[in-house]
TrEMBL record:
SUPFAM superfamilies: MOP-like, P-loop containing nucleoside triphosphate hydrolases. The gene is ugpC. It comes from Nonomuraea longicatena. This is Sn-glycerol-3-phosphate ABC transporter ATP-binding protein UgpC. SMART domains: AAA (SM00382). GO terms for molecular function: ATP binding.
Length: 351
C-alpha cells in the first residue's frame, strides 16, 4: 500500500490534444480518492498514466516514494478495473480472478485457493465455475473487483467501474466497494463522471476540467464551498442557483433583490463590483409569506423529488430554485419567497 504522487504531470497526445496540463496531486496512503469530471476532461488518461499504460509527456509519477515514471506497467504493482471489466470470456470465474497471479507465475493450486477465498468474500462462492457470459452485470463487476483484490496491489485504480450497472445495483455496489476499500485500506483512485458517486464514496475528491484540477477537498468542502462556477454547477443533485449580481454598499443586488453578503465573501468585495451569486436550492428556506432578504417571485414549476419538491421561482428573466420539504410545497402561480442562508451562499468573481 502506497501513496500516489503526481508532479507537474503533462500528457499531450500525438495530434496535439493536451489531456493533462501540468497536474499536481498527492493521494496519501490508504485514501479513497475520487476523480470527478465531465467526459473528455482527462480522467482516463490520468489513470492510465499512473498505471504506465500511457507515457507522460513530462512530469513524474511517484508510488510509495519511488519514481516510476519510466517503469513498465507490470512492474508498478497497481491493479486497475475498467468500465467494461475486461473479463476473459473463455475463462471461468476462478481463472479470471486468478489471472494476475498466473502472470506472476504463482502455482495453480495456490491461485485457485486464493481465487476461492476472495470469491467467497465477495459472495461469488457458488459461481466459481461459470463463465462471464453466464453472470449478471453485477456479478461480473464483482469478479472484476475480486481479480483486483487477489493481486494485493499497492494501489487500486478504478475507471468508472459502476457505470454499466443499472441504478439500483450501482447504489449497492457503491456501498459494497466503499466498505471493501475500508477493510483493505488500499490507496484507491476512483474515476467517475457521477458527482453523487464521488460525494458518497470519497475521503477526498478532485474536480477536473480540460486537463486541470479545479478543486481538491473533502466531499463536504467541495459541496458546500465549490471553488468556482464550473465546480458549483457540476456538483449537487439539483443545480446550484448561479445569478448575476453586483455589490451595492453593504449588500448585494442579485436579480433585482437586495441580498446579504455571503459570510465567506465578507470584507473581500468592493462597491460596484460584478459578481456571480451562488446558493444551492438545499440552502434556501421557502415561505409563502414575505420575508426580509428573500427572493420573491412567481412559482413557475414545482417538481416532485419524493421527500422534497424543487420549486422554481420566476424573478423577471432570472430563475431561482428552492428545495421545499414534502407537504410545504406551493401550487404554481402563487407568489413565493426564498431566503438564502448567508453561511451557505457564495460570491464568485470568475463568472
Ligand atoms: P475522460 O476519461 O475524462 O472522458 P480521456 O482521458 O479519455 O477523458 O480523454 C481526454 C482527452 O484526450 C479527450 O480530448 C480525448 O479525446 C483525448 N484522447 C484520449 N485518448 C486519446 C488518444 N489515444 N489519442 C488522442 N487523443 C486522445
Ligand atoms: Mg474515461
Amino acid at each position: 500500500m502506497s501513496a500516489i504522487e503526481l508532479r507537474s504531470l503533462t500528457k499531450v497526445y500525438p495530434g496535439g490534444v493536451t489531456a493533462l496540463d501540468s497536474l499536481d496531486l498527492v493521494v496519501p496512503d490508504g485514501e479513497f480518492f475520487a476523480l470527478l469530471g465531465p467526459s473528455g476532461c482527462g480522467k482516463t488518461t490520468l489513470l492510465r498514466t499512473i498505471a504506465g499504460l500511457e507515457t507522460a509527456t513530462s512530469g513524474a509519477v511517484v508510488l510509495g516514494g519511488r519514481d516510476v515514471t519510466g517503469v513498465q506497467p507490470g512492474a508498478r504493482d497497481l491493479a486497475m478495473v475498467f468500465q467494461d471489466y475486461a473479463l476473459f470470456p473463455h475463462m471461468d470465474v476462478t481463472d479470471n480472478i486468478g489471472y494476475p497471479l498466473r502472470i506472476k507465475k504463482v502455482a495453480k493450486a495456490t491461485r485457485g485457493a486464493k481465487a476461492r477465498e476472495v470469491g467467497d468474500r465477495l459472495g461469488l462462492g457458488h459461481l466459481m465455475d461459470r463463465r462471464p457470459g453466464q453472470l449478471s452485470g453485477g456479478q461480473q463487476q464483482r469478479v472484476a473487483l475480486a481479480r483486483v483484490m487477489a493481486t494485493q496491489a499497492q494501489a487500486f485504480l478504478f475507471d468508472e467501474p459502476l457505470s454499466n450497472l443499472d441504478a439500483r445495483l450501482r447504489l449497492e455496489a457503491r456501498t459494497f466497494l466503499k466498505k471493501l476499500q475500508r477493510e483493505l485500506g488500499v490507496t484507491t483512485v476512483f474515476v467517475t463522471h457521477d458527482q453523487a458517486e464521488a460525494l458518497a464514496m470519497a475521503d477526498r475528491m478532485a474536480v477536473m476540467e480540460a486537463g486541470h484540477i479545479r478543486q481538491i477537498g473533502t466531499p463536504a468542502e467541495v459541496f458546500q464551498r465549490p471553488a468556482n462556477t464550473f465546480v458549483a454547477s457540476f456538483i449537487g443533485s439539483t443545480p446550484m442557483n448561479l445569478l448575476d449580481g453586483h455589490v451595492r454598499g453593504d449588500t448585494l443586488e442579485v436579480a433585482g433583490h437586495p441580498v446579504a453578503v455571503p459570510s465567506s465573501a465578507a470584507g473581500l468585495l468592493t462597491d460596484g463590483e460584478k459578481i456571480v451569486y451562488g446558493v444551492r436550492p438545499e440552502y434556501m428556506s421557502y415561505s409563502a409569506d414575505p420575508v426580509d432578504g428573500a427572493f420573491a417571485g412567481k412559482v413557475a414549476i414545482v417538481e416532485n423529488l419524493g421527500a422534497s419538491h424543487l420549486v422554481t421561482l420566476e424573478l423577471g428573466s432570472a430563475l431561482v430554485q428552492a428545495l421545499v420539504p414534502e407537504g410545504r410545497e406551493p401550487a404554481p402561480g402563487h407568489t413565493g419567497y426564498a431566503l438564502p442562508r448567508a453561511d451557505r451562499s457564495l460570491a464568485y468573481r470568475d463568472g
